[in-house]
Amino acid sequence: MNGGCRAGWFMWSFLCRELRAAAGPRRLRCRSAVFASSGGAVPFGSACGEPPGTMERAVVRCVPSEPKLSLWFVLSDGSAKHMQRDQTEPLGRALARIATNAGKGHAKAAKKSKKARAEAGPAGEPVSAAPLAVRLFARDGEAVAEDVPNAEAWQDGAVLQIGEVKYQVERNPPSIAELQLPRSLLAGFPVCPKIRTEFGAPQHCLFRWYREQPGGGGDEPSPGGAAWLEAPVSERVFTPTNAHIGLRLKLHCTPGNSQQRYGLPREVESSGPVEAGPGACTFDSRHLYTKKVSGEGLIRTVSYNVLADIYAQTEHSRTVLYPYCAPYALELDYRQNLLKKELAGYSADLICLQEVDKSVFTDSLAPALDAFGLEGLFRIKEKQHEGLATFYRRDKFSLLSEHDIAFSEALLSDPLHKDLHDKLAPYPLAQEKVLQRSSVLQVSVLQSTIDPSRKICVANTHLYWHPKGGNIRLIQVAVALSHIRYVTCDLYPGIPVIFCGDFNSTPSTGMYSFINSGNISEDHEDWISNGEEERCNMSLTHPFKLQSACGEPAYTNYVGGFHGCLDYIFIDINALEVEQVIPLPSHEEVTTHQALPSVSHPSDHIALICDLKWK
After folding, report:
1. In which residue ranges is the amino acid composition biased (Basic residues) (predicted)?
2. In a 3-state reduction of DSSP, which class is residue 258?
3. d(CA 305, CA 594)
4. Which one, 6, 9, 92, 164, has least CB within 10 Å?
């Protein structure tokens, strides 16, 4: 079974369990999918003259890429039947199999009925266990021919009739494949559930939130004795208050799609209670500038190294790098609460993140920012567990294409970088170090949804970290700029670039000078940044006119042993200009807990934020 089939099978298995649970010991009635909170939801269709909500339901899962379809229904004796049939099989064979299954159930029911009648006395006629007629009717009431393939026959709104019982066919109704709440819940911080749907989308689901009320008195008592009170929130994101401290949360989610069609709901309870938040955070004052999404023609851009968990959780980090940080504040769940609140509060159009753990992107950031209207892209570093993430606001931009590269691979094998490779060849030690690095470049071409003539190239990177690696960073950024030139000149001629990242370079370095001026001389001191053995003198140029949109802050990285400006948002000044730069936290805020990260700041870096304007 291939990966797609396997994933689909697990989704279907869960749906069957939910349906079976909903059916209980008796038959499941087909409810019209109209909920009090649905805001005019459309009920499932009806056929053969039956009004909605009066028939049983037969749920069909049929995906073109999979060889089989699945069928689920509940017989009159209360037994649930789950069948898998080839999509190309004639309908008649599937109906014959249903008749066999139904006949067995009917015979059992007849035996029980006969035994009950015998015990009750001679009155009454014997119950027949004759085979049941099974037919499938199209929406117009016409019987579907038995030579029609299953994939074509089992259409939404059709009616399956087994004996006297009618089942309305629901083909591929929206379903929830995964629903999770974060393990750590903090008062004042948004709770963003992870939701994975099939035949639906999270933005079309219906949400109802509950808070625990221990000791009873609520609307829905639980087996443990607690009760749940519904919160006055019907949004995907719920922000608990101090009143919720010590209480668990529950989410009731009904999957839906863009046609306002809804499937079976699912519930999830938090594993622990809401805890008290840290109080004032370094980003609270910055949120005062970013309460609303930027207006038309503006692009609010964020660049942020968020500190990968694999680096925050080492013994070296706890004892040497960040000994001043409370251990619980280095825990992933705690930092993710801060990070999600921080990023959501910036109301950004573009977010470029570095040091993003793959699992954090999948399980935390992507679901959370999706709830706030942002679509995410991820590029992992070569042979690493962390990488780069780019998010864009989906009502402002659509993705045209991605052009990510690994620096080492591109330098080694892409003809685009042959000249640079040839220049580096006489310096084998420097060349070897460049090729050993796992650094990557994430490049996304976006198109404005408001003005399709406007396209933009968003580049995101994290250069080599070593303090003596200035020569390596020069080579890496030369590869990056050459690749960006190819995208913006050859593939999409004339489109501007926004180049974000943690460049691990202060404004006094050759890397910064190279990007700003467009050239670097072969005698620049950074070519021998790691001594004579790694010398790799060469002159380099690039065609862009780039400048740092946020200027040269005193620092964007502040740890116990170092502080300096390492992060930048470089913009193409031929097409873009800076409307405003969101002020960084004050020095007092940054040093309240000595340095970063801290109980009030999730990373050792500080986010750069600016509003850009098309010229």
Report:
1. 105-115
2. coil
3. 19
4. 164
Pure H helices in 245-306:
284-287
How far is 549 from 546, CA to CA, in rounded Å?
Answer: 9
Q: Which of 317, 52, 36, 37 is CA-nearest to residue 166?
A: 52
DSSP class of 490: I
CA atoms within 13 A on the CB side of 550: 29
The residue to which tokens 């809401």 are assigned: 274
At 579 the pLDDT is 98
Q: Which amino acid appears at position 404 of this protein? A: D
Of the residues 404, 502, 526, 611, which is catalytic? 502
Has 414 been annotated as catalytic?
no
Instruction: Read off the pLDDT band of 103 (50, 70, 90).
Output: confident
pLDDT digits (tens, 9 = 90+) for 397-408: 999 999 999 999
79: number of Cβ within 10 Å: 17
CB contact at 8 A, 143 and 217? no
CB 278 within 8 A of CB 600: yes
pLDDT band for position 292 (cuts 50, 70, 90): very high
Ordered structural domains, the chain, with CATH: 56-104+132-171 (3.10.20), 175-214+226-269 (2.60.40.2700), 279-614 (3.60.10.10)
In DSSP terms, 179 is beta-bridged to 195
- From 211, 281, 270, select the one nearest 240 (Cα to Cα): 211
Task: Write down the pTM of the prediction.
Answer: 0.81
CB 198 within 8 A of CB 88: no
Q: What angle do CA 295, 297, 301 make, to 5 degrees?
A: 75
Q: What is the three-state SS of 85-147?
A: EECCCEHHHHHHHHHHHHHHHHHHHHHHHHHHHHHHCCCCCCCCCCCCCEEEECCCCCECCCC
Structure tokens at 120: 């009750």
Element housing 73 (H / E): strand 68-74
Residues paired with 444 in a beta bridge: 402, 458
Q: Which one-letter amino acid corresponds to residue 398? A: S
In this structure, what DSSP letter does residue 245 have?
B
Backbone angles phi, psi at 565, to 5 degrees: -90, 115
